[in-house]
Design brief:
single chain, alpha/beta, Rossmann fold, 6-stranded parallel beta sheet, 6 helices, globular, binds flavin-adenine dinucleotide, Flavoprotein-like_sf, oxidoreductase
Length: 258
C-alpha cells in the first residue's frame, strides 16, 4: 500500500520528528511505500494567494475558489500544489502528523490543506440538486482512501476528556477529521494522540512508540469513525439537517457519528 505522511514540525530532533521517522521505518519494514511531505523542510508556502495560479494576471480581482477551479481544470496550478495533489492521488492512506498548536494544526499544515485541496478535487465535486448535495461527507475524490491523525499535545488527557477544560479531543479534532478528511471522502480512522508531552522520558517514549507501531500495523483493518454519510439517508436535502428520527433530542458534533 502507498502511504503519504504530511508532517509539520520545525525541528527534526523533536518528539514529532522522532515519531515521524519511526512511522516511516515501521511502514516501510512492513512492505509499504511511503512518501513524506515534510512541510517545514520543504519551506512550504502556507498562504493561499493569487500566485497559486500561474495564469493570474496582476490587477485582476482574485477570487480564491474560481481561480482554484480554473487552475485545477486547466493545468495552471503552481508546481508545488500539483506535486502534492499527485502524492494524494498516489496514496492509499494519508497520515497528518503534527503537534497541537492553539487547539488545531500548525498554520503551515492548514496552508497545505487550503492550497492543495483545489476546487474540483476536494470540493465542488458532484451533482447539486434536491436529491444530492455534491459528492462529499463520505463521497468525493478521496473515497476509498484512509486517513489518520497523529497528534501530540502539551495538555493532559484529562484536560481533553468529555468534561475537561480544553473540550473533548474528539470535538477539537472534528473540523479536521469530519471537515478536512471526511468531507472529500476519506475513511477516517480514530486519531493517535499523545498527551502531556513534557513528561515523556525514555520509558514513556518506548510505550508511545509501541502503541503507534500497533496502530500503523493495523492501518488497513482498523474500523473508521462511523461518520454519517451525507447522501446516506440520515439528512434532509438540501437543508442538510438530520432527520427528526435520527439521534432525536441530541445536538453537537457527536450527532454526526453513528
Ligand atoms: C505555538 C504553540 C501552541 C501550542 N498549543 C497547544 C494547545 O493548544 N494545546 C496543548 O495541549 N498544547 C499546546 N502546545 C504544546 C504542544 O502541543 C507540545 O509542545 C507538542 O505537542 C510537543 O511536541 P514536540 O514534538 O514539540 O515535543 P518535544 O518538545 O520535542 O518533546 C517532548 C518531550 O519528548 C521527549 N522526547 C522527544 N524525542 C524523544 C525521543 N526520541 N526519545 C525519548 N524522548 C523524546 C523530549 O525529551 C521532551 O521531554 C503548544 C505549543 C506551541 C509551541
Amino acid at each position: 500500500m502507498n502511504v503519504l505522511i504530511v508532517y509539520a514540525h520545525p525541528e527534526p530532533r523533536s518528539l514529532n520528528g522522532s515519531l515521524k521517522e519511526f512511522s516511516v521505518k515501521r511502514l516501510r519494514d512492513a512492505g509499504h511505500a511511503v512518501q513524506v511531505s515534510d512541510l517545514y523542510a520543504m519551506n512550504w508556502k502556507a498562504a493561499l494567494d493569487a500566485g497559486d495560479s500561474v495564469a493570474h494576471t496582476t490587477g485582476d480581482r482574485f477570487d480564491p475558489s474560481r481561480a482554484s477551479k480554473y487552475a485545477f481544470e486547466n493545468g495552471l496550478q503552481s508546481a508545488d500544489i500539483a506535486a502534492e495533489q499527485a502524492k494524494l492521488k498516489w496514496a492509499d492512506a494519508v497520515i497528518l502528523h503534527f503537534p497541537l498548536w492553539w487547539f488545531s494544526m500548525p498554520a503551515i499544515m492548514k496552508g497545505w490543506v487550503e492550497r492543495v485541496y483545489a476546487y474540483g478535487l476536494a470540493y465542488g465535486v458532484g451533482e447539486h440538486s434536491d436529491a444530492r448535495w455534491g459528492d462529499r461527507y463520505g463521497e468525493g475524490n478521496f473515497a476509498g482512501k484512509r486517513a489518520m491523525l497523529v497528534v501530540t499535545t502539551g495538555g493532559w488527557e484529562s484536560h481533553y476528556s468529555p468534561r475537561g477544560i480544553n473540550g473533548p479531543i474528539d470535538d477539537l479534532l472534528f473540523p479536521i477529521q469530519h471537515g478536512v478528511l471526511y468531507y472529500p471522502g476519506f475513511d477516517v480512522l480514530p486519531p493517535f494522540v499523545v498527551h502531556r508531552t513534557s513528561r515523556i522520558d525514555e520509558q514513556k517514549y518506548a510505550e508511545v512508540r509501541n502503541a503507534l507501531g500497533e496502530r500503523l500495523d493495523n492501518l488497513w483493518n482498523t474500523a473508521p469513525i462511523p461518520f454519517r454519510a451525507q447522501n446516506g439517508g440520515d439528512y434532509r436535502i438540501p437543508e442538510l439537517t438530520l432527520k427528526d428520527d435520527i439521534a432525536p433530542g441530541r445536538e453537537g458534533f457527536g450527532v454526526h457519528v453513528k
